[in-house]
Amino acid sequence: MSKNDFKKISWKIRGILDFVSFLYTYCPAIFSFMLTLYICEHSIGKINIYILIFLFPVILCFVFFIITYLFYKSLPKLKTGQFELKMSIEVVAWYLHIALNRSSKVLGLRYLINSFFILRYLHLRSLGAKVKFDLGTSLDFVIADLPLITIGSNCTIGQNTYISCHLISDNKLFLSPVKIGNNVKLAMNCVVGPGSRIGDNCNIEFGNNIYGVRINEGTRLRPLEWVAGPPSTKANRDKE
To answer: CB 3.0-4.6 Å disulfide test: which of 81, 144, 146, 217 passes with 164?
Structure first.
């Protein structure tokens, strides 16, 4: 295969990915906005217009969650494992879930959703995440591959913390679930990578990077203690 042929295939794949992003990132957002406008338009006269204006963002959120859930149910399930980075069912399914997860940002609802327990819970659940209602987060956090995420009760996720079940290396896609127990604190700027397990009652201070390892119950990691693999000192510290 010549370099020109590779370029043609590369551009063709990019075009397909853009089309997928349009369907699963843009369409849920614009459909939600249009349906909310329709609902409000047909409520004028029955409900005071100022009340409708006040409630419009909330109505938009709930409509968006329903449409997101319908789009999510249309997607193939994510499979765990190692896959070559090509147009296979497993890779396309992963990209579709990533695209759908971006839709709230396109609609401009991200910060509103992350400000309230009920909105955040419904949004994460509509995308397949196994989370509890009492999950506390900052406004700025990222959780990718939501169907492979499990987070227990009374957990906190700090600012700029990133939780992901995928890793791309050597032209291969690795997918592995992430499970976080109960009463876990993830401070700001932490990274939790694919295959990680964090036990109950753990306190992960800021700047720690955890990839594909098990953190025992009751562990406390000090700031920047676990950055490039396990620390040279004892990783699983007793609770102080």
So the answer is: 144
Q: Does one domain contain both 76 and 141? A: no
Domain count, the chain: 2
Helix (H, G, I), strand (E, B) or coil at 197: strand
Q: What are 116's two structure tokens?
A: 């309230």
Angle between helices 3-21 and 89-101 (to 10 degrees): 40
Nearest one of 189, 191, 225 to 211, comparing CA atoms: 191
Residue 6: φ, ψ to 5°: -65, -40
Give start and end residues of each alpha helix (H) in 74-131.
89-101, 103-107, 110-113, 117-126
DSSP state of 77: P
Q: Is 47 exposed, middle or buried (0-12, 13-18, 19+ CB in 10 A)?
A: exposed
Angle between the N-to-C axes of helices 49-73 and 117-126, in degrees from 0 to 180, rounded to the nearest 10: 30
Q: Could you list the residue range(s) of the whole structural domain that residue 192 is in?
A: 130-240
Note whether 84 and 105 are same-domain residues.
yes
Q: Are strands 209-210 and 191-192 parallel, antiparallel or unpaired?
A: parallel
Extract the tokens encoding 161: 């913390």
The model's pTM: 0.86
CATH number at residue 190: 2.160.10.10
Are 91 and 85 within 8 A, CB to CB? yes
Partnered with residue 192 across adjacent β-strands are 163, 210
Give one DSSP letter per residue of 147-198, joined into a string.
GGEEE-SS-EE-TTEEE-SEEEETTEEEE--EEE-SS-EE-TT-EE-TT-EE
Beta bridge partners of 185: 156, 203
Query: Which pLDDT value is given to residue 239?
Result: 42
pLDDT at 9: 47
